[in-house]
Specification:
Radius of gyration: 14 Å
Distance between the termini: 16 Å
Largest sheet: 5 strands, antiparallel
Shape: globular
Length: 134
């Protein structure tokens, strides 16, 4: 995890933090979301390092199936009209606390993800202030 950047995520709707400092993965606060898969509801914690796919789930995740993500604060479903370029499943948007969004594929086993910014110059300035120059 030495060369990876740990992100801080918030709900794109209610803007509340999804970070859970009490349940860490790889030494960093996890990203906490509610999920639904195969008619069962549970809690999923994702590694906050960009590019890391470690996670903890309170329910069994169906292999090669999309799951639904929900904000644990406002209970809104986290979904976007974007579809995964690799598998066609819905992409899940998370707002970055410093601006921009991280999009992850909702299909278990698909590792497609990307970051998008409205204003790239502003986002880079904030990243440099946060992480220093690469």
């Amino acid at each position: 995890m030495k060369n990876l950047i740990a992100l801080r995520i918030k709900c794109p709707y209610c803007k509340k933090s999804l970070m859970d400092p009490y349940d860490q993965i790889n030494g960093k606060p996890s990203i906490k979301v509610d999920i639904e898969a195969n008619g069962k509801k549970g809690r999923l914690r994702l590694c906050s390092y960009y590019g890391c796919f470690d996670h903890k789930s309170s329910i069994e995740l169906p292999k090669d199936e999309p799951i639904k993500f929900f904000c644990p604060h406002c209970n809104k479903e986290l979904t976007s009209p974007n579809k995964c370029e690799e598998c066609g499943s819905p992409m899940i948007p998370f707002a970055l606390e410093k601006g921009g969004k991280v999009h992850i594929c909702s299909k278990v086993g698909c590792n497609k993800h990307f970051i998008s910014f409205q204003d790239v110059s502003d986002a880079l300035r904030k990243m440099y202030n946060e992480f220093g120059y690469f």
